[in-house]
Amino acid sequence: MTALTNAQFRLAARPSGLPKPSDWSYTEEPVGTPGEGEILVELEYLSLDPAMRSWMNAGRSYVPPVQIGEVMRAAGIGKIVASKNANFTAGQHVYGTFGVQKFAISDGAGVSVVDTELAPAPVHLGALGLSGISAYFGLLDVGRPKPGETVVVSAAAGSVGSIAGQIAKIKGCRAIGIAGGADKCRGLVEELGFDAAIDYKAGDVRAQLREYATKGVDVFFDNVGGTILQDVLARLAKGARVVISGAVSQYNNEKPAQGPANYMQLLVTRSSMTGFVVFDYAARYPEAVAELAGWLRSGALRSMEHVVTGGIEKFPEALLELFAGKNFGKYVLAL
Amino acid sequence: MTALTNAQFRLAARPSGLPKPSDWSYTEEPVGTPGEGEILVELEYLSLDPAMRSWMNAGRSYVPPVQIGEVMRAAGIGKIVASKNANFTAGQHVYGTFGVQKFAISDGAGVSVVDTELAPAPVHLGALGLSGISAYFGLLDVGRPKPGETVVVSAAAGSVGSIAGQIAKIKGCRAIGIAGGADKCRGLVEELGFDAAIDYKAGDVRAQLREYATKGVDVFFDNVGGTILQDVLARLAKGARVVISGAVSQYNNEKPAQGPANYMQLLVTRSSMTGFVVFDYAARYPEAVAELAGWLRSGALRSMEHVVTGGIEKFPEALLELFAGKNFGKYVLAL
Description:
Two copies of one chain form a homodimer. By secondary structure, chain A is an alpha/beta fold. Chain A has two domains: 5-126 and 303-334, Quinone Oxidoreductase, Chain A, domain 1 (Alpha-Beta Complex), CATH 3.90.180; 130-279, Rossmann fold, CATH 3.40.50.720. Chain A is 27% helix and 25% strand. Chain A is built from eleven helices and 15 strands. Chain A has helices spanning 51-55, 121-125, 130-143, 159-170, 182-190, 205-212, 226-233, 248-251, 265-268, 285-298, 315-323, and strands spanning 5-11, 24-30, 39-48, 76-83, 93-96, 103-106, 112-113, 150-154, 174-179, 196-199, 217-222, 236-244, 272-275, 305-308, 330-334. In chain A, the strands form three sheets. In chain A, strands 3, 4, 5, 6, 7, 14 and 15 form a seven-stranded mixed β-sheet that branches. In chain A, strands 10-9-8-11-12-13 form a six-stranded parallel β-sheet, sandwiched between helices. Chain A has a two-stranded antiparallel ribbon with strand order 1-2. In chain A, strand 8 (150-154), helix 4 and strand 9 (174-179) form a beta-alpha-beta unit. In chain A, helix 3 packs across helix 4 (159-170). The first copy, chain A, starts with a strand and ends with a strand. The model of chain A has no long low-confidence stretch (mean pLDDT 94). The A-B interface holds A 60-62, 225, 230, 244-247, 250, 256-277, 280 and B 60-62, 225, 230, 244-247, 250, 256-277, 280.
């Protein structure tokens, strides 16, 4: 094996607002040798996720914050270069939280082999990855939609939202997406089969919710928070379920986060708002992946990936593009 | 029957902030005669409730707003003066939403006979009335506390909160009350058996929550909203249930209501926040009243009433005293 060089983005400072170049440090170092029980992975695709911004903050969250100086946390897919772990062999494609780097050494914990015959690698970060699994359990287990009900999804053109809305359709619901921009909204309806899409950048979200959700909103799958959460709370049907999956509108806030001023609509409509973290469903991931894969094969579900090339050097810029909402579907950085 | 004169408080204007004298009109008129199927009730006790403030606002809520010119809505207990309804006889004490007036004519809908042998009339507005029933279903059905869990109640010295905390104790939970003032806090612990009480006017609520709820808060029964809701959200245990029963801190706001800025703690802790309206449980009221009455008889539950005399003329002032938190237990105005 020739000497390999690893390249990494490490967290240099906790950002205030959007991450600046100075919040990152780019490091290079020789790739190490896997020890007994370990594998060496060459990363091919990085998953870029809105939640990454929240991992960069100090304070209590559902996962520990990334420490200053640590390689930035990221999920990815790579190929095993060398294995000293009996569960893996060189040449296999694997999924894991390998970090923003070219090579990773892992003991195999949390690493799973990816079937690239079933679908290309980026799909395993999208519809068949944590995005799809999040949409699956968040919508079905927490949202509990019934056929004929109206499901609203925010960040509907994002990796989780685009799947959640399609699952709502598969389950016989009316699906309304909220997204930013006419192109995304057209894509939701024409390519993914949503019943309606609301461009929050273009118009009055509440007026459009009244128009499209004439009987109110039974399930709201929220990835966004902020004013969009308030707009949907104002339109809840009786006994609605609000799934709090994320709050991307708030992650880059420099001011304190904005709480839903009209949360008393939960009382008015006898509704619930429930926080959801996909990791709690780890034991049931195979169930979700099997069903999602079936839907993909049958054509009931489409996986959208926004694959950006440019290598690891592009990571800081790519993350800003994600926060600017440039992607339709799963944002994947090809290394 | 000699000619009787009715006296009433009607809503004259929708208040901004606390209700001013000019928001009311005091009217007198001759008492009418009950028609076929109707009863004439002479009111003896009015129930004063924080929710009354919300009924005075225009806009979507769980009950229609009181209209301008309408007699202010209020629950009360009175004695039947005359009955042309086969279900009622003169001399009976009855509970109903009779309004802020001395006499009411009713067709009997929503009116129930009150057993003043079981307990004095004010108790039927408190522990055996909607306050107790709200505490019962809100805590047990929505909060679902398990023995050994920590239950926090806000406005714990109020009519609903004082019962909710005691039910938590009956069910084997640790009960922590949040109230305003040292006297109330002492009363919660010494008279009602709460494990601890936090005086939100005196100190750092979050620090005291850390001290008293060492393992976090499993159930929060919230009557208050505002910063207290945020303080408790910051201390939720995993899988906690937040019962939204009211938001008295917000009812008299002139500014837009304050939403919980840290609502993402619901995600961090995988908790839920659910709106609760007691009217949804109307079919099950007898079940609650039977159990509450049993606890009262056994001494497991104490009903606290703050009975104020002064007649109907005192109503506007009494309502302001309620909002200022002068009461310990159920605020009842004796007519």
